Amino acid sequence: EADIYQTPRYLVIGTGKKITLECSQTMGHDKMYWYQQDPGMELHLIHYSYGVNSTEKGDLSSESTVSRIRTEHFPLTLESARPSHTSQYLCATAGDDSTDTQYFGPGTRLTVL
Amino acid sequence: GENVEQHPSTLSVQEGDSAVIKCTYSDSASNYFPWYKQELGKRPQLIIDIRSNVGEKKDQRIAVTLNKTAKHFSLHITETQPEDSAVYFCAASREDQAGTALIFGKGTTLSVSS
């Protein structure tokens, strides 16, 4: 069944560490997105991609980077984790049709001590 | 850039009552307006969406209306049930040179009491 996978689901890490959050999808979608969300709160767009070798910055992009080498994968890297990065990170995908509907992955809950 | 305002931030209703959540957007070029439901600890799920060439769309107990002139759209839930309790997010599309992104409202926490 087509789905979006995020690993790890939970991560506790110390300040200053470099971390990569993985997102992979079997939806067959070209468009992928990363959002940051505190529980039950607003979704903030971090980065997005419309296809291989395409990446765009969102509203909260300054402290992270992404890459899109393969259609199925869209990893998010924090070069130096800080307590302010403690949040949930949601990956989403959208197809090439005209609907622009986004489908979300289960999320990674990150805690930076 | 696009800005989406959502009201109210919290809404409490009795089972069987109707619930209405309203959103306004700033970019007149926006043409796609989805609504997502997020239950506690789960991922957001699309419940209904509308494009700018349509004024209203209905799916069973859920309906969305769009007023392009006033740049606002609303979610209507009739005959609410306890399982409707969740956080609801509206969003509006934002076009850039490469494609489409979504800008989300801050969310509405709906509580339905039996």
Can you offer a commentary on this structure?
The complex is a heterodimer of chains A (113) and B (114). Helix content of chain A is 0%, strand content 50%. By secondary structure, chain A is an all-beta fold. In chain A, strands 2, 4, 5, 6, 9, 10 and 11 form a 7-stranded mixed beta sheet that branches. In chain A, strand 5 (43-51) and strand 6 form a beta hairpin. The radius of gyration of chain A is 13 Å and the shape is globular. Chain B is mostly beta strands and 114 residues long. Helix content of chain B is 0%, strand content 59%. Chain B has no helices and 11 strands. Chain B starts with a strand and ends with a strand. The relative contact order of chain B is 0.33. The mean pLDDT of chain B is 94. The interface between A and B is medium-sized, with 23 and 26 residues.
Question: Features of this protein?
Answer:
heterodimer; A: 113 residues; mainly beta; 7-stranded mixed β-sheet; 4-stranded antiparallel β-sheet; 11 strands; globular; B: 114 residues; 6-stranded mixed β-sheet
Ends distance of chain B: 41 Å
Count helical runs of chain A: 0
N-end to C-end Cα span of chain A: 36 Å
How many β-strands of chain A, per DSSP?
A: 11
Which descriptor suits the 3D outline of chain A?
A: globular
List the uncertain runs of chain A: none
Largest interface (CB < 8 Å): A-B, 23 and 26 residues
Helix/sheet category of chain B: mainly beta
- Percent range of helical residues of chain A: under 10%
Mean pLDDT of chain B: 94
